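Researcher: Next sequence.
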Amino acid sequence: MHLYGTQSVNNLGHLTIGGVDTVDLANIYGTPLLVYDIALFRERAKAFKETFKKAGITAQVAYASKAFSSIAIYEVAKQLDLSLDVVSGGELYTAVAADFPRERIHFHGNNKSYSELQYAFDEKIGCIVVDNFLEIEWLKQISESRKEKMNVLLRVTPGVHASTHDYITTGQEDSKFGFDLKNGQADDAFLKLYNHPFLTVLGMHCHIGSQIFETDAFRFAAEVLMEKMVEWREKFKFVCPVLNLGGGFGIRYTAEDKPLQPAAYVEEMENVVLSMTRKHNYPLPEVWIEPGRSLVGDAGTTLYTTGSTKLVPGLRTYVAVDGGMSDNIRPALYGAKYTAVSANRMMDPHSDKVTIAGKCCESGDKLIEDTYLAEPVEGDLIAIFCTGAYTYAMASNYNRLAKPAIVFCEDGKHQLVVRRETYEDLVKLDIPLQQIESENVK
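Model: Next structure:
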């Protein structure tokens, strides 16, 4: 049984996280409940920063907050002197609500709206990562009309085919993201921005995908971008002060996953950057990275309470829990795998082969197929590990299920940071038909 971060088992045989008994958490806050081990988040962030420091490279480690966005997690990122990667006006608004330092906010997205770009100018954020030619024209219009400056990075596709699921591969040529390096789009985009009076090109950005284990893809991406930087110096007398190599570092969801320590991927990138700057006598750029999943993924654990059990003779045993694809769509969306334990009976033999089913009205609502738990009993507490990334962020109200509460645990203390939705929350945007009719009459 593999435990993560500060997880342990107490003398009651209960799983603990951050020194807090998960049974107590379930009793206090209810289930489903998403619990974050904040000490693990801090440890990972500090490891990334220390890796750059040891290499003598000036860097920004930006939390890719699409993995999990909330005021509280932004506040922790601020405490750690991280930068922040946002991809929408909503994430930017959350960052503003958390009073995150604007100069350390980077705005991504393949289809930013005009109003979102205006909002970025309003807040005087640190950088906009430009993704398409329409965005370039809009940035010119906004900056010129306001006579306000903005830093920009060009997102490029380096042609890397990383070994991951197609849904989360982004660095190949056939991608909705960025300017292609091979067909000249990146050069065209650069020339449209170069020497603009209000838009300052900092350099290039790439992101090759997510949940990547091998280092070769990261090395290749760094090499390709460094080669283009050298070419731009020769062609345009331009030296990129920033090289953003994105994120995508894999984590361990199951025993089959064999990730390296997150810092190991950074070391591979650093080696490429250092060797190529020496080879080409190129000024060492500031390196930016964007870890998301590798900061919060295995820091998160979801707690569920079991309900019904169904035995299908000769096939399987279904154990139903009080959540499912509404709070974790990843298994249904692209077959994501997880590990689970009976959190209230950790010392009991986990020898019963079961399938953990959600409560949504979909046959595909299965959180884990064929896992081993203690003999199922109604009311058991089930913990599913490594649910910190892309679960709550992708949660829905399908079947009008309320989204779960979120708790941070650290040093034996726990704090509610996102309250559980109520039935009242589910209808707060609904407008009764009679009200529509009366407004139409007016």
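Model: Residues 163-172 have pLDDT under 50 and may be disordered. DSSP finds 13 helices and 21 strands in the chain.
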